[in-house]
Amino acid sequence: MRVATWNVNSVKQRVPRLLPWLDQRKPDVVCLQETKLADEAFTALLAEPLRERGYEVALFGESQWNGVALLSRVGLDDVAVGLAGAPGFPHVEARAVAATCGGVRVHSLYVPNGREPESDHYKYKLEWLSALRDVLETGPEDAVVCGDINIAPTDADVFDPEAYIGQTHVTEPERAALQAIQALGFHDVVRDRWPNERIFSYWDYRAGMFHRDLGMRIDLILASTSVASRVKAAWVDRHARKGTGPSDHAPVIVDLDEAPDGDIGPVVPPPSSPGGKKKVKLPQAK
Fold it and tell me: Is 214 within 8 Å of 281 (Cβ atoms)?
């Protein structure tokens, strides 16, 4: 079973990329984030082409912002929309949808960004992550947590730790919240498989960050121990970030039980032009 997660940064804009990608990579389960469409609009846009490709769909969307989806061609049972116990900001946002697919409980998540440390949105992010941990703690043994987690697990998951000082995504409380989820028995399967490799999943659109490979790894697939033991390949599809009209995120793909493309490495294809030792400021800091 091939499981993928992708923050598409507007599914409407990404249709010309999404459908060919589904045909190329043939994932069995797809978790999408930042769909930015109400459920009715998503259905009108994509229900038929997804049905033609064999996918059932579970949605939790809202117009303009947020939005998550779960596509499956291996079953879509016991759908849960939203995250029990999660706070709103101020209303409940479309950030979580879960279902059982092929015997595995799959969570498609778009974790709040946090904006600035100590801001109200940052506190909301930590409370939201606490609610997620509570849900996962009582969930089934076979589970995967997929999505834009908006946390770089360690300094190795950003191009330059000094460039992120004072920014969200790398603070100790955020990382501690992620570690509390992993302590339930969830494994960061990409990093576990490639402990010493340069791997990113997000690159800012500005300042040539992608072509210089100056990114972050904030899109994760966390698998329970029973599922992690089935992993045969785990990789970032960097090719999907290239070309015309890409998302600023690349898909993350994990193959269970068999690897149709082989154990092909942490990033496909390799980075175009890895950044060197020169210090780089984040575009938003300029």
Answer: no
